[in-house]
Amino acid sequence: MPSARSPILQRLRAETAVRHAEMEAALPLHDGQLSRATYQALLLRFWGFYTPLEQRLHGSALYAQPNFDYGARLKSPKLEHDLHDLGFTSDMLSRAPQCRELPVTTTLPQLLGCLYVIEGATLGGQVVTRRLQANAGLLPHTEARFFNGYGADTGPHWKATGAFLTERAEAVDQDDAIVSSANDTFYALGRWVAGASFPKGP
Question: Percent of the chain scored above 70 by pLDDT?
């Protein structure tokens, strides 16, 4: 008798833990004296990752999934609003570097693994938002929309994402590919952020 499948969310948490930790270690968010200049540089780096990634995802199988509005979950518009509030013009953004080594998102399992990473980040963003407000005076509804995620609705949104991932994983039955894609996404984002030079000091 074949063994039961491990729940996909359980596998994703366990089998991406190393890549997740490596990615978080690359973020300059652990210093209690986080400066606005460092924050601006980090947001610009995130913008350079999410913008081309979401352009690639546009029109993908994620948009065709029933009962899941991926278009309402885009991150690049929030990043662009934050950067504009911090003084970046559209012309400045047009000249900012964009990541060329994105995770592969050709198949639905690859899309699901990528989705786990970019939606799961909204949970950690709630902790970061409180730290940014306390240490750098950044407001969650103006200069920190990206990290603030869905605000008070972040928990329910993640629960809905988890239910969607579980249902779709059972349907496609390619858990190894989903986990591999999540690891690739963590690696690509961590490598992209680690390649930046962040300002030090206040």
Answer: 93
Distance CA 173, CA 77 (A): 33
pTM of the model: 0.91
CA distance 126 to 146: 10
Report how far apart the first and last C-alpha atoms of the chain are (Å, whole number): 62
Query: What is the H or E stretch that residue 148 is in?
Result: helix 145-148
Diameter of the chain measured on Cα atoms: 62
Residue 74 DSSP code? -
Q: Which amino acid is at 115?
A: L
pLDDT per position as a tens digit, 9-18: 999 999 999 9
Q: Report the candidate in 33, 42, 45, 26 with the shortest Cα–Cα distance to residue 136.
A: 33
